[in-house]
Structures are given as C-alpha cells and as structure tokens.
Amino acid sequence: GYKVGTKKYDQLIDSDPTWMENAEPLYKTFPGWQEETRKITVFKKLPKNAQDYIHALENLVGLPITLVSLGPERDSTLYH
User: Fold this and answer.
1) DSSP calls for 14-74
2) Which of 2, 35, 56, 66 is deepest in the core (most CB within 10 A)?
3) Cβ-Cβ contacts under 8 Å for 28 (sequence gap 6 or more)
4) Confidence class for position 18, pLDDT limits 50, 70, 90
5) pTM, to two decimals
6) H or E element: which one contains 8?
C-alpha cells in the first residue's frame, strides 16, 4: 500500500502527479534464514522463517501457494 499524509491507500493513484510525489510506499519486512533449502522436498522441513514468509504471502494474495522454487535445478521444487 501507500501512505499520503495520514491516509493509507491500497493502490497507486497514477492520474494525480501530486499524489504520486507525496506517496510513501508501505511494506512489511520478514526475518530471513541462512539454512540451505535446495534439497528440501517437504514444506514442514523448510526453516520456520521460510514457512512463515510463504504463509504471509498466501494471506496477502488470498490464495494457496502450491509450488515453491528453491533453486535453478529441476529437483529444487517443493510442492506445498
């Protein structure tokens, strides 16, 4: 979302250049993880912070995330 003054918006109002100049993006940060994940094939074996991040994305978009790419290799894909 965005904040202009004290008001919050869920989307850009790109038709108003003044609004865009004053819009401050709102974002959420998440703790990361240092564990190797490329060989993980079961969601529950992901680091807790990775699981929490995926759940937060599911809540944000309102849909389940069923596939997670954990690296460039074909077998680095987790089905959730």
Assistant:
1) TT-HHHHHH-EE---------S--TT--SGGGS-HHHHHHHHHHHHHHTS---EEE-SSST
2) 2
3) 56
4) confident
5) 0.76
6) strand 7-9
CA distance 32 to 43: 16
- SS3 category, 77: strand
Q: For residue 60, give the amino acid letter.
A: L
Residue 2 tokens, joined: 């965005």
**CA torsion sign, 9 to 49 to 75 to 71?**
positive
Q: Which strands sit side by side in the sheet containing 24-25, from one edge to the other? A: 7-9, 2-4, 24-25
